[in-house]
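Good morning C.,

I know you're traveling, so I'll keep this short. The sequence:
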Amino acid sequence: MLDRGFVIRDTQGQALRMVGGMADISERKLVAQEEAQEAQVHADLVRVQQRISSLELGLPEVLQHVAQTALDICQAEGALLELLEGDRLVAQAAVGQLVRTPGSALPLSNSLLWPKLQQGSPVLCNDTAAQGWNLGDDPLRQQVRSVLAAPLVCDDTVVGTLKATSSRTDSFSPRHLAHLQILAQSLGAMLRLRQVAAQLRESEQQYKLLFDMHPQPMWVRADDPSLRFLAVNQAMQAQYGYSAQELLRMGMGMADLWLPEECAQRSAEVRNYPHDQAHNGLLHRHRRKDGSVCEMKISSRGIIFNGQPARQVMATDVTERQQTQRELSRLARAQSMLSSCNEALVRATSEATLLQDVCRMVVERGGYRLGWVGFAQNDAQRSPDRCPRGRGQRLPGATGPVLVGAPSARPGSGRHDRAQRPQRHRARRGQHHAAGRLGRSHGGSGLPRGDGTAPARGGAHVWPAVPVRP
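The tokens, ready to paste straight into the viewer:
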């Protein structure tokens, strides 16, 4: 009661009478208390939502915390959290009395609340006996008089229930049911969040396994001037002979695999790649740890790796394929050259014209850098006649055919021209003859001319455009 009054006095200040009144403020005070309690409950629910949204907490701890919160906000005697497993509701967390122990299972056919809960509707019952609920023979269930239940919904599917129980009638109000529904919705959202997080982790693990176990060499490099490796797979380690730690610690990253003579060109190319543009079928030559060179077909695309721009690269070793293609091309050129030489033989009107045409076919059809024929001179060493430099020219007094091919080259010494069989040779470092002029790694074959009994008159030489393997 609220009592208010005042005193009426005369002109001398003497009290004459007191006037006052009383008002019943019980309802107003009750409303204020309920508002304060409501604010406190909402604050508690916000704290619970923040806590259970953390993925650092284990799921059992989260479920137990939700059950305890349900008990507190509903002022119940017991709280139970169940999850659906097949055709049973399995207790995951329990607090207080009048509830099953964690791990116990209730068949859906024995659940009085499931038909309504599976439709997504909550349940509020304040007198199970008056409503004629058949609680069975379980003494624990027979003590229950008031029940609150809310469905746990995850991704539009009911996956469990959150219940509060009491042995007294009229224990719960619609306000309690609203609070329990908010808590159940928060838990459902948390379960969905954990499902997504688990799917992401599984997807990341699968992708990492796919990347690491992929049979093709793959790597991720920084899409910046450093070109450093960020990730490499096992096939790359096997292809290049480096361990993962060695590759990841390379100072120049991708540039350490390029050939020195191609480093500047490759560096300019990769730095001009737009990040959002894929590149497929690029042919690069790389150097392995043992110094050997391999030809790699490169495909790459821009990605974001650990928050930074990067390029994911897949490579295919095409060294043998390229060698095979070059060999097939060489054989095709050789057949075309031989056919042209046979035609020149039929059309030839003189030996000089024939040899000139043959040397020209060797260069133009066969793809050789140099072709020449020299006749042995009648000196003591029977040295070959030196052909002059330049295409289609002859020095005064020269008796052999002209040089056809690279104009800056000079014929070899001809020491094997006196032999009676074709020979192949490779140039040595520092050897200043045709091979040295055309490239130290290049070689050729000599074809002596003779009848098998007399000394050879001279030799025919060709110098290929690519290195000759012994």
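Safe travels,
E.
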